[in-house]
Design a protein that fits this description.
Helix content: 25-40%
Radius of gyration: 27 Å
Strand content: 15-25%
Largest sheet: 3 strands, antiparallel
Distance between the termini: 67 Å
Number of strands: 8
Structural class: alpha+beta
Number of helices: 5
Strand order of the largest sheet: 1-2-3
Shape: flat
Order of helices and strands: HEEEHHEEHHEEE
Mean pLDDT: 81
Length: 236
């Protein structure tokens, strides 16, 4: 668009790239101010979406039910994200009532503060019960009930995209599936007597505990101990 100058030119200045960049940054900052982030002042909506996970351990007759509710930020825009807002734990077993209430309040407070809350997973999973842990269904070892709550939290954060999956790629899965079939075929021909408390679940009887994923899935393949769950190998 042409602009007509009706007055005498007395001075001029060449526009610099820095000025243009500053203007672009200012516009971007204005756009970012319109994006709603998680923070402590965020009011709880009347309705939240969430998921409930069941935890059944051999340490208690009654199961625990862990519910994680999420809030949807910037709904309907390209910046829409789902973030955890609160957690509830319910059980008929009242033995753990006090610390469960404390845990839910602290974790919910961390959620509402915003930012990266994935560190909670590692903190909870590193809690060990002095009386010893247990194996959950599938052969995965849990050092404590708190650690399994951390495992549930990890599942949820992965489901909403806050944590990336550490699963095997398709080539690793195909290799493990092939080797697993060979192990199962050999086990069928030469049955291995399993202990009465064996908790390998979906894995061949006699499998050993993997130090990486804490699952009883380590079997000898090609003369080397290899985990059928995460692919960990003693031979590298």
């Amino acid at each position: 668009m042409a602009v007509k100058i009706d007055t005498k030119i007395i001075d001029y200045e060449v526009a610099r790239a820095e000025a243009e960049g500053a203007a672009a940054e200012s516009a971007q900052a204005g756009a970012e101010r319109d994006i709603e982030h998680m923070h402590e002042e965020l009011q709880r909506p009347e309705r939240l979406e969430g998921q409930t996970y069941k935890i059944k351990t051999p340490l208690s007759e009654h199961a625990l039910y862990v519910t994680v509710n999420d809030v949807i930020l910037n709904e309907g825009t390209e910046h829409e994200v789902r973030r955890p807002f609160e957690v509830f734990i319910n059980s008929k077993n009242m033995d753990h009532f006090q610390w469960i209430v404390a845990l839910t309040r602290i974790v919910s407070a961390v959620f509402r503060k915003g930012g990266d809350c994935t560190f909670l997973v590692e903190e909870l999973r590193s809690v060990f019960d002095p009386r010893g842990g247990y194996f959950k269904k599938g052969g995965k070892f849990m050092p404590s009930l708190v650690a399994e709550i951390g495992d549930v939290l990890e599942q949820h954060l992965r489901s909403i995209g806050m944590m990336e999956s550490e699963g095997l790629d398709e080539h690793q899965q195909a290799f493990i599936a092939q080797k697993r079939a060979e192990v199962e075929t050999r086990a069928a021909q030469e049955p291995v007597e399993a202990d009465c408390d064996d908790s390998t679940g979906d894995y061949p009887p006699g499998a050993e505990l993997c130090a990486k994923c804490h699952t009883k899935a380590m079997v000898v393949m090609d003369g080397c101990l290899t985990c059928l769950s995460c692919g960990e190998s003693k031979c590298g």
